[in-house]
Amino acid sequence: MLSAVSPKKMPMILQNIKRVLKPNGYVLFRDYANGDFAQVKLQDKNRMISEDFYVRGDGTALDTSYI
Predict the structure, then answer these.
(1) From which residue to which does any coiled coil extend (predicted)?
(2) How do strand 48-50 and strand 53-55 relate by DSSP bridges?
């Protein structure tokens, strides 16, 4: 989820999540691993736009620098 946004916007997104989360609420994150299938598949398709930052076919991003 967070990998689909610019790393610069991640703090703002987390603040917004905290603001709207109900007391005792849950947030589920989908995470990636360095070298996982998603990263390898994007490397094979030459979708890297900078080091550890890839763009998917739908225009969303995969950032593996935080892994």
Answers:
(1) none
(2) antiparallel
What is the Cα–Cα distance from 62 to 32, expressed in whole angstroms? 9
CB of 61 within 8 A of CB of 6? yes
Higher pLDDT, 67 or 49: 49
- Could you give the CA distance from residue 22 to residue 7 in angstroms, rounded to a whole number? 25
Does the predicted model carry a pTM greater than 0.85?
no
Of 1, 5, 8, the residue nearest 61 (C-alpha): 5
Distances in Å between the alpha carbon of 8 and those of 3, 14, 35, 36, 48? 11, 11, 23, 23, 18
Residue 23 zone, left/alpha/beta (φ > 0; ψ -120 to 50; rest) = beta
Would you place residue 3 in the very low, low, confident or very high pLDDT band (cuts 50, 70, 90)?
low
Tally of CB atoms within 10 A around 54: 21
